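Consider the subject:
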Amino acid sequence: MEQLDCRGLACPQPVMRTRDALAAGTSALEVLVDNEPARENVRRFLEGRGFTVAASQEGPDCWRITASAGESAASAPQQAAEASRPLGETNKTLVLITTETIGRGDDGLGAKLMGNFVATLPELGPRLWRIVLINGGVKLASQPGPALDALKKMAADGVSVLVCGTCLAHFGLLEAKQVGDTSNMLDIVTSLDLADKVIRP
C-alpha cells in the first residue's frame, strides 16, 4: 500500500498528489492530511474513481484515509471525466460567486441583491450547469435565507454546486454547510476550463 503524507500541504495539493499516485497505477493507498477540507476532498476524489474509502481521525490535526480499488476503479476515471464534462451541444454556464453580497455601498442592500440574483439563476434554464462558491460566497450555502433556499432547489433539480472547503474552514462553516459538494481548487479550475461561459456577479 502506497503512503502519502500530505500534512502541511495547501489545497489542492493533497488531491493532486493522490491523482498522481493513481495515474502511476496505485491500487491501494493511504493518505495523511491535517484538515477536514483535505480529508473530504481526497475522500470524494477517490470514491469518484471507484475506490473503497475509509477515513479516521488520529489526532486533532491528523486524518488517515485508506483506499483500495473496487471493481469499477478501472473505468471510473473516464466515467468521472464524462460526468464532469458539459453534455450535449447546449452552451453550459458556470456561475462563480465570490462574496455574499453584490456591489458596494450598503451590505444590507448587497445581500438582498445577491439573494435575488441567486433566486433568478433558474431563468438560465438548461444552460445553467454549475455554481461555484468561494471566499465569502460559501456563506450562501451555510446561512438561512433566500439564496440558500434557491441553491437547495437548484441542486435538487440537478444543478451542480461546488463549495470551497478551504473557504468553509476559514469561516468556521464546515459543519454549517447545507447544500453542495465540499470542493477544492483543482475541481474549481477544471470546472472553469470545462464551462462554455462563466458568469461572475
Notes: The radius of gyration is 18 Å.
